[in-house]
Design a protein that fits this description.
Layout: H1 6-28, E1 39-41, E2 45-47, H2 49-65, H3 70-87, H4 92-108, H5 131-134
Antiparallel strand pairs: 1-2
Length: about 140
């Protein structure tokens, strides 16, 4: 389990939000017709069956990886949703917010790699002297 971090918080909150939006969107429009045909939901969201499925899938993925690899999820979802906002697929402002917050969470979370202190070698020091060195 990862320690608390911005990426873990992002994966949990964004995952829950996206799953909720996806499920809610199915009540407004559950048709899997044309990808670029949308219905208005809650006055500010554009939904269709494909977007709803996409939101549920990416949100569920976030909830699944929140405790294991949330930094990678934050980067992947951040890039994906930012590209979707730029291309104009679906609700642009929502995609932009989710994408930029994902990139910020990724940048604000240190990588899991530990840095060695200066002057320390990769090999560990031997614990016991070899037989030839004892004599």
């Amino acid at each position: 389990m990862e320690a608390a971090s911005p990426a873990r918080l992002y994966a949990s909150v964004a995952g829950a939000l996206l799953v909720s939006l996806g499920i809610l969107g199915f009540f407004y429009d559950a048709s899997f017709g044309e990808v670029d045909r949308y219905e208005e939901a809650l006055g500010a969201l554009q939904v269709n069956g494909w977007l709803n499925l996409f939101y549920v899938a990416t949100g569920a993925l976030g909830l699944l990886v929140a405790s294991a690899s949330s930094r990678g999820y934050s980067l992947a979802i951040g890039l994906l949703y930012t590209v979707l906002a730029i291309t104009g697929w679906g609700t642009g402002w929502l995609h932009l917010v989710v994408g930029l917050l994902g990139l910020a969470a990724w940048a604000g979370t240190p990588s899991g790699k530990r840095k060695r202190p200066a002057g320390k070698s990769r090999r560990s020091e031997p614990r016991a002297k070899r037989a030839r060195q004892r004599a």
